[in-house]
Structures are given as C-alpha cells and as structure tokens.
Write a structure and sequence with these properties.
By secondary structure, the protein is mostly helical. The protein has two domains: 65 residues, no CATH class; 37 residues, no CATH class. The chain contains six helices and no strands. α1 packs antiparallel against α2 and α5 runs parallel beside α6. The longest helix is centred in the middle third of the chain and has 18 residues.
C-alpha cells in the first residue's frame, strides 16, 4: 500500500500483482516495485493520475498486452526500453544502434 491516493480497486490490484510475482520467485522488494509501477501506469492510462508521461498514455495497457514485454523469453525488452536505458547511461551513438547493439551496449 505505497500510495494513499489509490482507490480500493488499485490496492487490490497491487496486492494481486505483488502476490503473483512473489509466487514466481521474485524478491519482496522487486515484487513491490513492479506492482507499484504497474498500478501507477494503469492509473495514468485511465486518467486517475495528476501527471502522466505522454509515452504512458500512448502505450498499450498491460491487460491488453498480456505480458508481451515481461522481459523474459526470446524477445526480452523492446528497442525503446533499451534505448531509454542507454540514454540514462549516456552511451554515445545509441540513436543509430539496433536492438541487438543496444542490448550489448547496455549490458543486458
């Protein structure tokens, strides 16, 4: 229950996501972080948040995506996610890199 502005529905959603992640073997802190981020993104996409990143508003909601970008399996992270990591790390030439090059540069 990290946020007091969450509705009862969002609290339940947070709890379900966190429990599911714990059952998958994630640590308590990782499960809490992922659950909070997911709930906050859902709130933003449904107009419940005061401020929302434009990328968040344009993104496909998690229930529709169905775990498409769960950072697991052959596909892993999207190029855009890797690019954002590269940007945060200040990796030069990132705009011209493809997904494989970004994965190598970011170290994932």
């Amino acid at each position: 229950m990290p946020q007091t502005s969450w509705s009862a529905k969002r609290e339940r959603q947070y709890g379900h996501i966190k429990d599911s992640l714990r059952k998958q073997g994630k640590s308590e802190s990782t499960a809490e972080e992922i659950a909070a981020r997911t709930v906050n993104k859902e709130r933003a996409q449904h107009g419940e948040a005061e401020k929302a990143n434009p990328k968040t508003l344009k993104d496909t909601p998690a229930p529709v995506r169905g775990g498409q970008r769960s950072h697991q399996g052959a596909q892993g992270r999207t190029r855009e996610q890797l690019y954002e990591d590269a940007k945060r790390k200040g990796i030069p030439g990132r705009s011209k890199m493809n997904k494989a090059e970004l994965e190598k540069a970011v170290g994932r």
